[in-house]
């Protein structure tokens, strides 16, 4: 079958509509002899029967392996330039106590961005000294909680926070380690980056303001200055942007050493993953080695020792590990004018029992995903399809463009890969839809790690029910 003229240029009509795209699916995803998708040895039909749909299905071994690989990659890369590494898991991508335990076992730290995320991390049993706290508007209650449990670092995001954190530390009689978030002027997106002199955003402080703010931090007896923090973007496929940001920060780092120790440098992260065949992120080991090389070169240039390097790999650890499992409800072929203005083409609308309440990214900023028929093989021809949700919004799109078999029918299961990051974490009850469960699978055995909601759960929050 020829490509559909409605398809984006990057999406080719597949030779095998059943094939699982390399690099997009969890490590332990495969098809059974009947064509049914399996995750870590569990058939999706069994998972759907046991846990319902929609559901997030997590390949536990995948998460553990990616965490361990990220840790080893940066440990090895930084050891090669005579320093050590700290690797932080991004709690905002997806967090529950079970994932905290996996991350803890792999030797990673956790960064959190709210009082709720902090509470989950602590409940998961990780040493609070391995927790970093982010946020541009931390409440005094959140700061108090972070200091009280003894977190290893609070990232100062504005001048106002210096006194707030210092006061909380004085009340608890401790010295609180802090970092200062710097706007380096480097913006990275996928494998391109842009360096500017000024940034117009809510996070961090300009490089020019850093010496004054670091002096203010050092003037507080209840604060200990760990070093600088930077974040240049998300879904970054290579290390190019980090080279420029690292050099700028190392120049500032060197200047700050004149007035006191600066033991660490946190370069942030946001390493990307493959959502579709068009995405081609670099291997984590290659990224780690290139970052190490850039830091070492800057340290030599400015004549200073290489500090401990902290990184935050972001979605790259949990994102690829998870699929969203949906059941098809309705099918609607829609005739559309071809972009060329000559003739028409068919786009098949495949409606499923979830949508923007469990994955808002496509509606929020046009994020692209892949999909596959999950419960069986099909020998039908590929047909350009749009997987859409059940919400009362025309923008409720799960997968904007994908070739699915032409015989997809109501009752079939559809799987969408790479939904481990910012799927459940950004989920909502829009249209009063309960949020799905999160189910971990390992060696063919599944268990719920976040309970799904019921309509009864939602009604319990309404004080007017039964009045």
Keywords:
467 residues; alpha/beta; Lyase, Ornithine Decarboxylase, Chain A, domain 1; TIM Barrel; 9-stranded mixed β-sheet; 8-stranded parallel barrel; 11 helices; 27% helix
Q: What count of helical segments does DSSP give?
A: 11
Count the beta strands: 23
Q: Helix coverage percent of residues?
A: 25-40%
Low-confidence stretches: none
Structural class: alpha/beta
Strand percentage lies at 25-35%
Q: What do you see in this structure?
A:
Helix content is about 25%, strand content about 25%. It is of the alpha/beta class and about 475 residues long. The chain folds into 2 domains: about 30-60 and about 320-460, Lyase, Ornithine Decarboxylase, Chain A, domain 1 (Beta Barrel); about 110-315, Alpha-Beta Barrel (TIM Barrel). The strands form 4 sheets. Strands 4, 16, 17, 18, 19, 20, 21, 22 and 23 form a 9-stranded mixed sheet that branches. Strand 16 and strand 17 form a beta hairpin.
Give the gist of this structure:
With 467 residues, the protein is of the alpha/beta class. The protein has helices at 44-51, 60-79, 97-105, 115-123, 140-149, 159-172, 210-218, 240-256, 284-302, 361-365, 455-460, and strands at 29-31, 37-39, 42-43, 55-59, 85-90, 109-112, 131-133, 153-156, 176-183, 186-189, 192-195, 205-206, 223-229, 264-269, 308-312, 322-337, 344-352, 372-373, 382-388, 397-405, 413-417, 438-442, 445-450.
């Amino acid at each position: 079958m020829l490509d559909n003229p409605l398809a984006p240029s990057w999406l080719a009509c597949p030779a095998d509509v059943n094939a699982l795209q390399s690099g997009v699916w969890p490590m332990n995803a495969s098809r059974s002899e009947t064509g049914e998708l399996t995750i870590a040895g569990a058939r999706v039909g069994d998972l759907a029967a046991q846990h319902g749909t929609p559901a997030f299905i997590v390949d536990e071994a995948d998460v553990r392996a990616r965490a361990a690989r990220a840790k080893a990659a940066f440990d090895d890369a930084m050891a090669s330039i005579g320093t050590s590494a700290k690797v932080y898991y991004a709690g905002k991508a997806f967090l529950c106590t079970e994932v905290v335990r996996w991350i803890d076992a792999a030797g990673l730290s956790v960064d959190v961005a709210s009082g709720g995320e902090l509470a989950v991390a602590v409940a998961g049993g990780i040493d609070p000294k391995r927790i970093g706290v982010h946020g541009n508007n931390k409440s005094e209650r959140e700061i108090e909680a972070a200091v009280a449990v003894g977190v290893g670092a609070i990232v100062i995001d504005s001048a106002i926070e210096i006194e707030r954190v210092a006061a909380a530390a004085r009340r608890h009689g401790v010295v609180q380690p802090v970092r200062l978030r710097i706007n380096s002027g480097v913006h990275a997106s996928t494998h391109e980056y842009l360096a500017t002199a000024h940034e117009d955003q809510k996070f961090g402080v300009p490089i020019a303001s850093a010496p004054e703010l670091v002096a203010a931090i050092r003037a507080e007896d209840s604060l200990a200055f760990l070093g600088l923090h930077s974040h240049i973007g998300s879904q970054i496929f290579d290390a190019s942007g980090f080279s420029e940001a690292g050099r700028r920060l190392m120049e500032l780092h060197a200047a700050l050493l004149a007035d006191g120790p600066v033991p660490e440098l946190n370069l942030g992260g946001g390493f990307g993953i493959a959502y579709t065949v068009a995405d081609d992120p670099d291997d984590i080991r290659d990224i780690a080695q290139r970052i190490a090389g850039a830091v070492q070169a800057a340290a030599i240039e400015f004549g200073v020792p290489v500090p401990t390097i902290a990184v935050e790999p972001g979605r790259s650890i949990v994102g690829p590990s998870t699929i969203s499992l949906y059941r098809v409800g309705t099918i609607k072929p829609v005739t559309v004018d071809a972009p060329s203005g000559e003739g028409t083409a068919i786009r098949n609308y495949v409606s499923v029992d979830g949508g923007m309440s469990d994955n808002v990214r496509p509606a929020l900023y046009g994020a692209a995903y892949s999909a596959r028929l999950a419960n069986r093989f099909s020998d039908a021809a590929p047909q350009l399809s749009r997987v859409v949700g059940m919400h009362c919004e025309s923008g409720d799109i799960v997968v904007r463009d994908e070739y699915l078999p032409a015989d997809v029918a109501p009752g079939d299961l559809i799987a969408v890969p790479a939904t481990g990051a910012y799927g459940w974490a950004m989920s909502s009850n829009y249209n009063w839809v309960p949020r799905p469960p999160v189910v971990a699978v390992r060696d063919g055995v599944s268990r719920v790690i976040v309970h799904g909601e019921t309509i009864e759960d939602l009604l319990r929050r309404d004080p007017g029910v039964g009045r």
